[in-house]
Amino acid sequence: MASIRDRLADAPEGPERFLWGATASVPLGPRLGGTGLGGRAAELARRSVLISTRDQMATALALIELDGIARRLVVATPDLPSEHLPAVVAKAGVDAIVSDEDVRPAKETPVTCCRTEWVLLTSGTTGAPKMLVHSFASLTAPIGSTPGQRADVVWGTFYDIRRYGGLQIFLRALLGPGSLVLSGAGEPVGDYLVRLGAHGATHVSGTPSHWRRALMSPDARAIAPRYIRLSGEIADQGILNALQSFYPQASVGHAFASTEAGVGFEVNDGLEGFPASMVGAPGDVQIEVVEGSLRIRSARNAVRYLGEDDSTLADEEGFVDTGDMVERRGERYYFLGRRSGLINVGGLKVYPEEVEAAINRHPAVRMSMVRSRRSPITGSLVAADIVLKGEPDSSGTGGEVVDFKREILQICHARLAPHKIPATIRFVPALEIAAAGKLARHA
Amino acid sequence: MSVKATVISEIRRIAEDETKSLPPLTDDLVLLDSGLDSLGIAILVARLEETLGFDPFTESDDIAYPVTLGDFIRFYERAAQSHGVDSRQAG
Fold it and tell me: Which terminus of chain A has a smaller tally of CB atoms within 10 A, N or C?
């Protein structure tokens, strides 16, 4: 399996290609026109390298330079809390770390030495990240099925390339004939849209939430893409229609993908959900629905979890249970949400247990249940139902309850990332408990 | 309270919760420049559904996403009318 650098070197002659960042740009060619490693790539040969940068551009360059050189590449997500770094380093046997540095002219690059293992992070139940091992083969297996891959393709991605969905776009841009425009750290969506437009972006990808935000920007007209891709969240009919009517020249498609299962499938008929005929059909990707849950087997599945003894990725037949619940209505399946109660807020995962633990720190709280609430802006939001110890002050003012609400939110603000803080709080007399003694969570 | 006043007071409450300062809330203010990010706007829509009893975003598969605060308020005022809520006396 050739490395990314080999593939860039072997790319057929065509128009000049670039990787455009917010503050720097690098020509993509037989020899990469820049380095984030200061010519020290050789020192990282055969090592397990953690790439933890503020800017996507630095990660992009390190991935290109170190694929085929490092033994293992561990890609830190932009919001990885620093308290989890020691565990990530230990589990992945990290012995070198790449962080942001200025892009310098590239020197001689060392020869390819090994087949690099890629480690991607995704959030886990306890807040500590789950680490998924992919190979270059599993990451690149879905590539080639995207429509309209011509030499003048310019990719853009609202989705960070350090997450699976964004990494797919990064690899499509590098291994296809195209260029890529990356967003800068903290770059406002309007500025990125203007840069995408200036570079003539033709293929633009993001979560439904990213796209809703783009459509709320006065600069949405700055781009005129040929292909619009949605992934990372359930794409509803509303956002598909809104994009098709705003960008009538574009073909609008949505993809089902997860870090664990890889890209499951792409749906290009403009409708939400997916055709029932895909389930049980033969092909590179096999799809099953068992007890309402979507299961996927393909060469795109992650290889294994890193450092987890007790959780297996795939069953004996090689199927990965995605935990995404689907329901058949007529000739189509529709997504219902997650079996575990996991909440997807604009593409970011929230485990209810983590939020409940924060709420339950308030001395007046007996128990709480955090659930998903549909949002037309971010897909879902966090909502909390709370049972208080004893009757709240019923003297008529409701003042005590208002205070509790404010105090609970303060605790959440101090302990949780903004997307995990409950958007709405309800005080309820009781919560439903299932037979096993656990809170009855509904998908 | 009118729909407009309800929207403005919810925006102020969310900004207070997040200790963010707001620019003057004029009709031509671009929502994404209001100091609320898309999470903040999502929270605004959820709280307005609790206060007003409807969410105009989910009532049709064919909506145009509002860009300015004025667009957003008009979007809610139109929905209030179709719900038989007097847009000047919604709260």
Answer: N
Quote the CA–CA distance of A253 and A235 in Å, as a whole number: 9
Mutation test of the interface with chain A: which of B19, B32, B36, B54, choosing the one with the most A Cβ atoms within 10 A?
Answer: B32
Q: Which residue has the tokens 């065509």?
A: A14
Pairing label, strands A179-181, A17-20: parallel
Nearest Cα neighbor of B13 from B33, B30, B29, B35 is: B35
Mark yes or no for CB contact A376/B43 under 8 Å.
no
Residues 5-34 of B with CB under 8 A from A: 17-18, 30-32
What average pLDDT does the segment A298-315 reach? Answer: 84
Q: Minimal Cα–Cα distance from B22 to chain A, Å?
A: 17
**Which pLDDT score is estimated for A107?**
60
Contact predicate A105/A34, CB 8 Å:
yes
In this prediction, residues A303-320 reach a mean pLDDT of 84
Alpha-carbon distance of A307 to A89, in angstroms, equals: 11
If you average pLDDT over every residue of chain A, what do you get? 88
Q: What is the ipTM of this complex?
A: 0.89
The highest-level CATH class for domain B3-82 is mainly alpha
Strands of the A17-20 sheet, one edge to the other: A25-28, A17-20, A179-181, A154-157, A203-206, A227-230, A251-258, A262-267
pTM reported for the whole predicted model? 0.83
Which residues lie across from A442 on neighbouring strands?
none
Q: For residue A406, with 0-12 CB atoms within 10 Å meaning exposed, 13-18 middle and 19 or more buried, which class applies?
A: exposed
Question: With pLDDT > 90 as the criterion, what percentage of chain A qualifies?
Answer: 63
**Per-residue model confidence as pLDDT tens for chain B (91 residues):** 899 999 999 999 888 877 788 999 999 999 988 888 889 999 999 999 999 999 999 888 888 899 999 999 999 999 998 887 655 554 4
Give the Cα separation of A97 and A50 in Å (integer): 5
**Alpha-carbon span A211 to A376, nearest angstrom:** 11
Cα–chain-centroid distance for residue B89?
15
Structural domain boundaries in chain B: 3-82
* Residue range A2-15: mean pLDDT, rounded: 84
Q: Smallest Cβ distance to A213: which of B38, B57, B60?
A: B38
